[in-house]
Specification:
Elements (H helix, E strand, L loop, with lengths): L1 E3 L14 H6 L6 H16 L8 H17 L9 H17 L8 H17 L2 H8 L3 H4 L6 H23 L8 H11 L10 H32 L1 H14 L15 H14 L8 E3 L3 E3 L2 E3 L11
Antiparallel strand pairs: 1-2, 3-4
Helix pairs in contact: 3-4, 4-10, 5-8, 8-10, 10-12
The structure holds protoporphyrin IX containing FE (HEM).
């Protein structure tokens, strides 16, 4: 009976502290909107129903570019944070905007800068204070004012991209997620109640970036750290990679079932780093009594940890 109250925006464990900002920034949906857009997004992404290229293909392309970029460091010490954040962001760009960006592309760097800036602000101690005492936000304007500005600028960039897509849309040949959404909008154009609107498209694309970039980038970074700390595990993973994949081709999803050790290591990395320990907020759809505790229904807006 637990209904999802908000759809996304959970940037690492610190984020669990920022529910007030979560709602303030408007990154949430529930009820009919959440249900319809969630179902559409899941089917579109799961079926790889976006033209000739699958998501796997896009991930492989990005992985090759990431390896190339890491090679440029010539094995000298470096901080991989930025580049490991770029790769997942670029996969999402490829899925929603059709193409990945070059790592030096100005639009891409601006997008990344805004995400990073917002994440830094959201994880600052000051925001934790404001989250517990929301009234303080109005009394002490500070860096957090940048948050809505960054969000608005990101949304306006996505809106520009949507306009470009509208101008070149071929309903028989969707190129990416935005095209699929626009086609769905067209199919629902006579439905006054439709959730498939430009505003919801822009919000959904922003959600995908916010939900997918920091989470995956941080997982990659911690994964590398754990492999460095456990060279005996890394050696076994490497042995399995060489045995199953070899050195001439990219890994693919089919390899997974032949690589039980690597699969287990990936799961263990995710378990160990515990990136979103309290999950995202949920609410119950009806009053629920559990032992002597009452969880009031969604209308009363009581948030529950997942
Ligand atoms: C290692 C990387 C990731 C981690 C650890 C992670 C973690 C999570 C968690 C804990 C939830 C909440 C589930 C719940 O309680 O209902 C969630 C939901 C979600 N994630 Fe991820 N995620 C990751 C990557 C991604 C990526 C790459 C995307 C998209 C491109 C994404 C999109 C979403 C969305 C849209 C939701 C909300 C789904 C809903 O409303 O039911 N995530 N994720």
């Amino acid at each position: 009976m637990a209904a999802k109250y908000c759809s996304t925006f959970f940037l690492g464990c610190e984020f669990s502290q920022f529910l007030a900002f979560f709602f303030w920034l408007g990154f949430s949906s529930n009820g009919k909107r959440w249900k319809e857009i969630w179902r559409f997004s899941l089917i579109t992404l799961r079926n790889f129903g976006m033209g000739k290229r699958s998501i796997e293909d896009r991930v492989q392309e990005e992985a090759r570019c990431l390896v190339e970029e890491l090679r440029k460091t010539k094995a000298s010490p470096c901080d991989p944070t930025f580049i490991l954040g770029c790769a997942p962001c670029n996969v999402i760009c490829s899925i929603v905007f059709q193409k990945r960006f070059d790592y030096e592309d100005e639009n891409f760097l601006t997008l990344m800068k805004r995400f990073n800036e917002n994440f830094r602000i959201l994880t600052s101690p000051w925001i934790q204070v404001c989250n517990n005492f929301p009234l303080l936000i109005d009394c002490f304007p500070g860096t957090h004012n940048k948050l809505p500005k960054n969000v608005a600028l990101t949304k306006s960039y996505i809106s520009e991209k949507v306009k470009e897509h509208q101008a070149t849309l071929d309903v028989n040949n969707p190129r990416d997620f935005i095209d699929c959404f626009l086609i769905k909008m067209e199919q629902e154009k006579d439905n006054q109640e439709s959730e498939f609107t430009i505003e919801n498209l822009v919000g959904t694309v922003a959600d995908l970036f916010i939900a997918g970039t920091e989470t995956t980038g941080t997982t990659l970074r911690y994964g590398l750290l754990l492999l460095l700390k456990h060279p005996e595990v890394t050696a076994k993973v490497q042995e399995e990679i060489v045995h199953v994949i070899g050195r001439r081709r990219s890994p693919c999803m089919q390899d997974r079932s032949h690589m039980p050790y690597t699969d287990a290591v990936v799961h263990e990395i995710q378990r160990y780093i515990d990136l979103v320990p309290t999950g995202v907020p949920h609410a119950v759809t009806t009053d629920i009594k559990f032992r002597n505790y009452l969880s009031p229904s969604f209308d009363n807006k009581i948030m529950l940890a997942a």
